[in-house]
Amino acid sequence: MNILKSVLAIMLVFGIAVIGFAYSGIFNVAATQSHDPVSSWLLETTRERSIEARLSDIQAPDLSDEKLRLAGINDFDSMCTECHTAPGRPPSSLAKGLNPPAPDLAEAALEESAEMLFWVTRNGIRMTGMPSWGVTHDDDDIWPVIAFLQVLPDLDGYSYQEMLESAEGEGHHAE
Ligand code: HEC
Predict the structure, then answer these.
(1) d(CA 43, CA 33)
(2) Ligand 1 pocket, Cβ-based, cut-off 6 angstroms
(3) Tell me: the pLDDT tens digits for 109-125?
């Protein structure tokens, strides 16, 4: 019984400390501040484990179709490059101010599964600048971008621009 009382007392003190911390204004929410190592580890581990736990019901379609990739580059160029940039382009002012930064999607495509890339694109990541594209786009409009990401690591500034020009009229962001 005494142990139970002690545990409850510790939880109460901890709860009051957390509420006091929130009310105090000590924590600086500015995007110019970087996270301390403990918060970084907590946030990254939570994100990785959360995404992994939600991938089992996603099955990527055949992403090797050239037409799908051409649709994808147009959509990628319209929807993603402001934050993630494109090969051969300097980062935008918006991208420079993001915290956490938007990672290079060519590297992400080499390291992550198509299902992971799709899940993040569809659902976004809360409390970062990464929006949920699934709010405004069907799955069929998101898979072409993921198909394009499979070839993004092979492109430099010149071949990216060439592929973009050859994709005229493809994708739901075609102009
Ligand atoms: C408004 C800015 C913004 C736009 C636009 C945006 N993203 Fe992101 N994205 C981010 C940020 C910021 C992160 C990093 C989130 C984090 O660190 O948890 C991110 C992370 C990701 C990741 C996770 C990569 C990894 O290695 O963990 C993927 C995949 C991704 N974005 C895909 C896309 C795609 C595809 C598009 C376009 C359809 C897009 N994003 C558009 C800001 C953006």
Answers:
(1) 15
(2) 47, 79-80, 82-84, 98, 100, 102-103, 105, 108, 112, 117, 120-121, 125, 128-131, 133, 145
(3) 999 999 999 999 999 99
